[in-house]
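Subject: Protein record for review, amino acid sequence with backbone structure tokens
Why sent: The fold of this protein is of interest and is recorded here as tokens.
Notation: Tokens come from a learned vocabulary of local backbone shapes, not from coordinates.
Attached in line: The record itself begins immediately under this heading.
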Amino acid sequence: MLPYRPLAVVCLLSCSFPAARADEPFHYPTARAGNAELKYIHDAPVLTVGGSPDEIGAAVGGLALKPSSRLLSFTRDLLKAEKAEETWPLFVRGGKGMVKSFPADYRVEMEAVARSAGADRDTVTVANTFFDLKSTFCCSVLMVEGPRSATGGVLFGRNLDYPSMGYIHEHTLVTVYRPTGKHAFASVGFPGLVGVLSGMNDAGLCVAVLEVYDAKEGEPHFNPKGIPYALCNRRLLEECSTIAEAKKLLESMPRTTLLNLAVADRTSTAVFEVTPKQVVLRPSVRGVCTCTNHFCSEEVKPEKAAALFHSDERLDILDKARGAKGKLGVEDVHKYLHAVNQGELTLQTMIFDPVNLRLHLAFGKMPSSGGELRTIDLAPLFTGEARAAD
């Protein structure tokens, strides 16, 4: 069973999950509805939505979640694989409690997603609160700043490592949001998630979450009244342009649990080491910033940390980028991410280019880091120019 935040902790490494299926993989149908559109760009599915929370939720639910409705069974499938099906009511109850802490816009959007997809509300609620209640992700990040970058600008590389149950990797979706009165941003994730696991906005601010499993004695591990961390991440993208602005906003929000949040803007990179009590900024070292699934800062790291998911070994490999000769380009970052892949757990590999507002994305087969990167120019999608040119 995976580690639970408020419940007993049992490690993922002892579990086995279904392998990827051999039949025809899932593909999203292309479609338009009002100003929303789901299409393929370089063989990657991209959904563009905008407007009010209700309009955004209706488009996400109708165009993306409804045709990929198998995703709605994911949390139950995961619990079943862990022989923990009986805990489902606990997640429903915990999720309903956490919804009370949602910013109002996100609560409206989630309701519209469920309604438009014809999905069970409790299932959608659990999907949007599951990560905070149950530790699941074991990811890796390598960020390179301009002076060390072959492009001359920041490169933000990230593996998302997560059990696929044999199918969720096929449902990877890039969603470009243009919410009224806020920054436009792109989220790499799955339909139905109102929050952001990995994303970049039109100002070049990038975020990616990496869960952490232990902290210094005295640090609280869970706050049931906090805002789910994926929703906090989304607020950062909607409201901030720089790392400094993001830290200030994150500190102002009640936070649920332990995590590393990798962040970058157009000039610099950092990791926020986050607990419900504090946010500690860990800066880059010699133009390179790395992160896995444990705290490194003295303020929050435990005296003796369990190296779950080979977190320390992966960090050591990524840290070697600091000593690499010459400057690091997109392919170099890609190679480092592949060197720390976790096999069937590595579902998405991405490199954000915040100066040029580009996303390089690999997904579909696992480990995703072994696949070809597909380049998506986000700038025209943020402004709506891509739709106008159709």
About this structure: The longest strand covers residues 44-51. Residues 157 and 333 are 6 Å apart (CA to CA).
